[in-house]
Each structure stands twice: as structure tokens, then as C-alpha cells.
Amino acid sequence: MARFFHGTFPDGVLITRAPDSAADTARRLNACGWRPVFAPVAEIDRTGADMPPPEDVQAVLVTSANAVGMLPTSYLRLPLLAVGDATASRARALGFIATRSASGDALALAALAAETCVPSHGPLLHVCARDAPQKLGQVLTEAGFTVTRREVYFARPAARLPEAAREEFARNMVAATLFFSPATARTFVALFQEDMALEAVANVIAIAISEAAAEALSPLPWRRIRVASRPNQDELLAQLP
After folding, report:
1. Residue 237, H or E segment
2. How many other C-beta atoms are found inside a 10 Å radius of the C-beta of residue 135?
3. 46-155 under CATH 3.40.1090.10, yes or no
């Protein structure tokens, strides 16, 4: 249900993910009457990983929207299987013409790959962050697939909280903060503890993509911490008050 605010009621929702990934989240927040605040706590850098030629790839598996922008244009016609709807939307926006979403987590993506791909038809390419879990590759390897992994980016933590976030907390205009990964949650907590008054989050709801992200947020005295019922953006946004 859309919400619309007037006056000085807190209506800001902090988006702590990288700008490229945050655009879709901001659009969704605007449509519901929330005011998005871009507050990335890390910068995304390429690793420079060598990519296999497209003819050696049966399908591309993507577990993060950040990874989509690292793919070469020669892959645009390859089947691309995304872990969630936001990642799939990002891929389509960049021109990938055969994109499907697992609308879930790594296990859901593995199930989609097993349903749509054939082990004898060539390797699957998993593109991901440098510190991404190995679970997806392990599950598909056990199912008979050859999985090539390429770590195409890494997140470099910011030196301090973005000024936009600092100002919003100082004005008590933050209603909620969204966390899309445990790493982002840990970085945010460390930066906040470094130079912000902890009570600034006392009236703020932290919304975490997973229990692991919620655990990382526990050192701060939030009004409450909510966890998405499934690890995707739809369920994360469903936790907004």
C-alpha cells in the first residue's frame, strides 16, 4: 500500500547498496511514497577477471546485480539466470535478451539452472563477488554440471558514512534502513560506531535480507530489526512500516 507523508514525519529510507543496484530500489520506494536516501557504504571495483568466450558458456548464473554490469557485451545473447527479480531487471536494462529470475536465493537459482540447462551442453558460468559463497557451484557440480566461477568484482568499504546519511540521522528523518547483505550490514555498523551517536538509530527500523545480516546489525540499538521472509527485494520492502 502506498504511503504519503507531509510535514516533518520521518519518511527517509536509506539504501545502503551500490548506486547501480540502488536505482530500482529507489524507484520502488518512490512509488510507495517513501523518500529514498542513497547511502552506499562500499564502492564496487572490478577484479579484471578473464572471461571465457561466449561459445564456451551454456548459461550465465548471476547472484548479484553488481556482477551484471561487469559482463561483456558478447554475452548479451546468452541465457542469463538471475538469483532475484532486481538482478534480472538490471540484466534486461543492459540488453540481455534471454533473462530469467529464480526469485529467491542461491538454492533457488541452482534449481532453475537444473531445470533449464543440461549438463552435457557445456559449462555454466557463475559471475559473482570475490567473497561470494561457494554453495551454488557445489550444488550444481553435485548435479553433474561443470561450473566455471569468475569473481568479477569486490566491495571496498567506504572510509565513513556518506554525508547524506549523516544528515538524515541528525535531522531524525530516517524511518528505515535497508540491508541487502551481511557484509553491508557489518560495514554500516562499523562506520556508524566510529563517528555517530548510537542513539540516532533508536527510532529507526533496520530491515535485513537474511538472519546473517540481522545478526551483523545487532550491536546498534535499533527500534527493531526485521528480516525478509525470503532473501529478495520484494520481501525486504514488504517489511517497511
Report:
1. helix 233-237
2. 14
3. no
Domains 12-41+158-237 and 46-155 belong to one CATH topology: yes
Spatial distance between the Cα atoms of 192 and 165, rounded to a whole number of angstroms = 10
> What does the alpha-carbon distance between residue 153 and residue 164 come to, in Å, rounded to a whole number?
25
In sequence order, the 6+-apart residues with CB closer than 8 A to the CB of 58 are 79, 117, 118, 121, 122, 123, 124
SS3 per-residue string spanning 42-95: EEEEECCCCCCCHHHCCEEEECCHHHHCCCCHHHCCCCEEECCHHHHHHHHHCC
Tens of pLDDT, residues 106-149: 999 999 999 999 999 999 999 999 988 899 999 999 999 999 99
| pLDDT tens digits, one per residue of 15-43 | 998 877 788 899 999 999 999 999 999 88
Provide CATH code, domain 12-41+158-237. 3.40.50.10090
Give the contacts of 185 (CB within 8 A, at least 6 positions apart).
179, 208, 213, 214, 216, 217
Q: What does the alpha-carbon distance between residue 25 and residue 179 come to, in Å, rounded to a whole number?
A: 12
**Whether the Cβ atoms of residue 115 and residue 143 lie closer than 8 Å to each other:** no
Number of neighbours of residue 127 by Cβ within 10 angstroms: 25
Domain limits, the chain: 12-41+158-237, 46-155
